[in-house]
Design brief:
Strand order of the largest sheet: 4-3-5-6-7
Number of strands: 7
Distance between the termini: 40 Å
Radius of gyration: 24 Å
Structural class: alpha/beta
Helix content: 40-55%
Shape: globular
Order of helices and strands: EEHHEHHEHHEHHEHHEH
Strand content: 5-15%
Number of helices: 11
Length: 235
């Protein structure tokens, strides 16, 4: 007997020896029980195959796909990379261009309608560009993380770096936010979402801030191991 799955059904193939075995089961009155076990096995296998994990991307334009065709964006390419690596994951992009941490906090309940298993949290770049007090950015991110953890949602925090024109004092205070929150809440940290892409003209769009298609590819490749770790080893 062999089991083969395809298109949402399980196909059972019997060898000659398997048919003899079934005849014996029938004479003993056990065939119905055996058949029920096989059906249960097939249903369980198919259910496992069709029940992907849900990963919500909760960020700003850097994850929303600003300036890119849909298929070039971070979300579809991360989902494809996860599938290529053998992981059945549904990636839901709940990122909004222009969002600050305050805006993200205000719309968090909407994103949680997806009932995610995990969230990749990437917010703060717009706070730094607008000169928002780092203490406020820290508090907003802390509230987002606390909300997610209270719902047993695992979090991968993607850090940001303040632009140099904001000055050393502002930069030092802002740049310390992500490592501090990672330690306080014991969540995984990817230190800089734009690692390998920031300040590389060939990997960014004309504005110098948003990754182009090649830049997205670099981000996906670098962050993929962290995302896999998040999904495989929930806290």
């Amino acid at each position: 007997m062999k089991l083969a799955s395809g298109q949402g059904r399980t196909v059972i193939k019997f060898t000659s020896k398997g048919l003899v075995y079934l005849n014996r089961l029938a004479r003993l009155g056990l065939l119905a029980l055996f058949a029920g076990s096989i059906v249960s096995l097939g249903v369980s296998a198919n259910a496992a195959e069709e029940d992907p994990q849900t990963l919500v991307l909760f960020g700003d334009s850097l994850m929303a796909g600003y300036g890119l065709a849909h298929e070039e964006g971070f979300a579809p390419r991360l989902e494809a990379a996860l599938k290529d690596a053998g992981h059945n994951v549904r990636v839901v992009n709940s990122s909004v261009s222009g969002d600050t941490t305050a805006a993200g906090l205000a719309r968090l309940d909407w994103a949680l309608v997806e009932k995610p298993d995990a969230v990749l949290l990437e917010l703060g770049a717009n706070d730094a560009l607008r000169g928002v007090e780092p203490s406020q950015t820290r508090d907003n991110l802390a509230q987002i993380i606390e909300k997610l953890r209270s719902m047993d949602v695992d979090v991968l925090l993607a850090g940001m770096v303040a632009p140099p024109n904001m000055g050393t004092t502002y930069g030092d205070e802002f740049n310390s936010i992500y490592a501090d929150l990672s330690g306080r809440y014991q969540i995984e940290l990817y230190p800089f979402f734009l690692d390998g892409v920031a300040a590389a003209p060939e990997l960014n769009q004309d504005d110098g801030m948003h990754p182009n298609a090649e830049g997205v590819g670099v981000i996906v490749e670098r962050i993929l191991p962290n995302v896999i770790e998040l999904l495989q080893n929930p806290s």
